[in-house]
Amino acid sequence: MALRFLGIYPNTPDDGSPTIWQDTDTGDLIIQSWKADPGTIREAQEVGSIPGHTTDVPAHETVIRLPATMLQFIPRPEAPHGNTST
């Protein structure tokens, strides 16, 4: 695995700031961010995702809160050639 640094929370005040890397082999994003608070996790569980899919968070996963300002660092797939829509 080889990671490429993408970005860190703008004007970060300390060493514990949201950071994003990309695995250059798989394209996966590796995200360090703030843990979601219990209220946010409950709300996500209430909203759910797809019918029949559990809303439990498995022990090997967690829920994070990614600040909107960090979206600028997430790579976007390129549009197919000739497609000018955004």
Could you write a compact summary of the structure shown?
By secondary structure, this protein is α+β, with helices and mostly antiparallel strands. The protein contains 1 helix and 5 strands; from the N terminus they run ββββαβ.
Describe this structure in words.
Residues 1-20 are annotated as: Disordered. With 86 residues, the chain is α+β, with helices and mostly antiparallel strands. It has a domain at 3-9 and 17-49 and 56-73. The chain is built from one helix and five strands.
Topology:
Layout: E1 3-8, E2 19-23, E3 29-32, E4 34-35, H1 38-47, E5 64-65
Antiparallel strand pairs: 1-2, 2-3, 4-5
- The helix tally amounts to 1
Strand order across the largest sheet: 1-2-3
- What are the segments in which pLDDT stays under 50 over at least 5 consecutive residues? none
Order of helices and strands: EEEEHE
Q: What percentage of residues falls in helices of 4 or more residues?
A: 10-25%
Mean pLDDT: 87
Q: How many β strands by DSSP? A: 5
Distance from first to last alpha carbon: 32 Å
Structural class: alpha+beta
Question: Major beta sheet, specifics?
Answer: 3 strands, antiparallel
* Beta strand %: 15-25%
Assign an overall shape: globular
Radius of gyration: 16 Å
Region (Disordered): 1-20
